[in-house]
Write a structure and sequence with these properties.
Chain B: It is a multi-pass membrane protein. Chain B: It is found in: Cell inner membrane. Chain B: Belongs to the TsuA/YedE (TC 9.B.102) family. The complex is a heterodimer of chains A (143) and B (143). Chain A is mainly α. Chain A has six helices and one strand; from the N terminus they run H-H-E-H-H-H-H. In chain A, helix 1 crosses helix 5. Chain A is globular, with a radius of gyration of 18 Å. Chain B has one domain. Chain B is 70% helix and 1% strand. In chain B, helix 5 crosses helix 6. The chains are: A mainly alpha (143), B mainly alpha (143). At the A-B interface, helix 1, helix 2, strand 1, helix 3 and helix 4 of A face strand 1, helix 1, helix 2, helix 3 and helix 4 of B.
Chain lengths: 143, 143
Amino acid sequence: MPTVFSLIAGLLFGMGLIVAGMGDPAKVLAFLDLTGRWDPSLAFVMGGAIPVSAVAFALAKRRGASFLGHSIQLPNTRNLDQRLVFGGLLFGAGWGLAGICPGPALVLLGAGAGKVLVFVAAMLAGMALFAKIEPAIGNGRSR
Amino acid sequence: MMIDWNGFTPYLSLAGGGLIGLAIAILLLTNGRIAGISGVVSGLLQPKRGDVLWRAAFVLGLLLAPMLYLLFGDLPASRIEASWPTLILAGLLVGFGTRYGSGCTSGHGVCGLSRLSPRSMVATASFMFMGFATVFAVRHFLR
């Protein structure tokens, strides 16, 4: 049962990305092009998503468990560390180069956009690479 | 600042955002999990017992979303302007950076912000800043 809901959530999430215009990397880049011909649309995606999910998080917090009895698993790290900044900067650089972030990458792959296969393969390689070197760089969380 | 009024889609983007928020709500209130795409995907690269099915179903939903969308109409245009080498570099940065920073546009930018997580505010500010900066650099110095 939870798996079915997870599938539905993935479908809706992907539909949302397409409807919102995030499935078009050129539009994403137009949003990031503040000093060019700026397309502010994608700010509205956050504007549409955050109120709905904020209600869900508030409800989840009050209930303490999901409607199917699963525990609500929220991150328990609290401190602000360098990883958030450096990781964010690296991710932002990649996002700004191609106009593709992880969700749209998978949706575009499903739509059969051949070029995205290369991006997704590289993205998975980047994730695997980080998992490999994470122990070596330490988690940076003590600082 | 010049606004690209032709590309501006406030209502669609708001509606798409609403769908994304709904998807986040469903996953949270059934599975108790956060719909952060980079986190969901990376958990499949290092699978743990009992923690695979919901992830795989969610990713499958994202991949199948374009087909669901096709039941309602043609897919909107999707323009990938980046060259092959750029896509590889961008993919690596996105994959590595999202793991390094513990999240991407969905996990930090929507889920984190909607529960007012200071960590997500820092991460979101970092990747937004670098996204803007990268597009500025590419469009002013590399063309």
